[in-house]
Design goal:
With 152 residues, the protein is α+β, with helices and mostly antiparallel strands. Helices cover 28% and strands 43% of the residues. It has helices at residues 15-23, 28-31, 119-126, 131-151, and strands at 5-11, 35-40, 52-59, 62-74, 78-85, 88-100, 103-112. Strands 1-7-6-5-4-3-2 form a 7-stranded antiparallel sheet. The radius of gyration is 15 Å and the shape is globular. The mean pLDDT is 95.
Length: 152
């Protein structure tokens, strides 16, 4: 994955604690400013390569849902997933976790795979004009909220 954007934060918690929080997608609404709820699909109850889940998102008064599939999972190190719409992967997201003194460094990644001609459709659905700036701010908030949850 060659990300369009990556944001890192050092968190004063072990890699395993942080990784467990990140891969419990039912908790995503606790830290993401855009995804307010997520649930596993098809009877899945935990993270595994190939597992699918649905994320429910909102921005202002707009709401939409997206299906995601876990494409890479290395315990306590890497968690990556593809976001799909009508069978098309339009973005890739992921987290890496690495030990550092006093805890771990978490890096969140985003890669935009939308063709240029489809970006206006995305904007009309989400209301987000500048997806890069929006995602950078959201990623910073996500990691700050994650840190607050696991450091306490």
């Amino acid at each position: 994955m060659v990300p369009d954007l990556e944001v890192s934060r050092d968190i004063a918690a072990s890699s395993s604690v942080v990784f467990a929080a990140l891969t419990d997608i039912t908790r995503m609404g606790e830290w993401s400013p855009e995804t307010y709820r997520a649930e596993w699909n098809d009877g899945v109850d935990g993270a595994a390569v190939g597992a699918r889940y649905t994320g429910h998102n909102r921005h202002g008064d707009r709401e939409w849902s997206i299906e995601a599939e876990i494409v890479e999972l290395v315990p306590d190190e890497r968690f990556f997933f593809d976001c799909n719409s009508r069978g098309f992967v339009f973005s890739k997201w992921g987290y890496s976790v690495e030990p550092v003194d006093g805890g771990c460094r978490v890096t969140e990644y985003w890669q935009d795979l939308r063709p240029e001609e489809a970006k206006h459709i995305s904007t009309s659905i989400s209301g987000v004009e500048d997806r890069l700036a929006h995602n950078r701010a959201g990623m910073e908030q996500t990691l700050a909220r994650l840190a607050a949850a696991v450091e306490s």
